Amino acid sequence: MVVITLQRKKCIGCNYCVELAPAQFQMSKKDGKSVLLHAVEKKGFYTLKSNDDTIFDNSLEAKKACPVKIIDVKQV
């Protein structure tokens, strides 16, 4: 299982996550910040739990590219 977490409030809208993992992220037209697709929000943290292990590598690249370090990716 892959677990991806996004701290959306701290997003600066650089778009790297969308470029590297377009199946998991998109940019909001409302505020220009990243949206973690199909995520559940709890206390400002957006979390996606997926049994699709194929999303791990792209999501990890998005985590590494994020300049404000607000993406966390784990394989559990």
Structure report:
With 76 residues, the protein is of the alpha+beta class. It has a single domain, classed as Alpha-Beta Plaits. 20% of the residues lie in helices and 34% in strands. It has helices at residues 16-20, 56-65; strands at 2-7, 25-27, 34-36, 40-42, 45-50, 71-75. It has a 4-stranded antiparallel beta sheet with strand order 4-5-1-6, covered by helices on one side. β2 (25-27) and β3 form a beta hairpin. The model has no long low-confidence stretch (mean pLDDT 97).
State the end-to-end CA separation. Answer: 5 Å
What strand line-up does the widest sheet have?
A: 4-5-1-6
What is the CATH architecture term?
2-Layer Sandwich
- SSE sequence, one letter per element: EHEEEEHE
The structural class is alpha+beta
Please, what is the average pLDDT? 97
Number of domains: 1
In what range is the share of β-strand residues?
A: 25-35%
What is the fold-level CATH name, i.e. the topology? Alpha-Beta Plaits
Per CATH, the class reads Alpha Beta
pLDDT < 50 stretches = none
The count of DSSP E runs of length 2 or more, i.e. the number of strands, is 6
Radius of gyration from CA coordinates = 11 Å
- What percent of the residues sit in helical stretches (DSSP H or I)? 10-25%
Shape, principal axes of CA atoms: globular
- Describe the sheet with the most strands: 4 strands, antiparallel
Number of helices in the DSSP assignment:
2
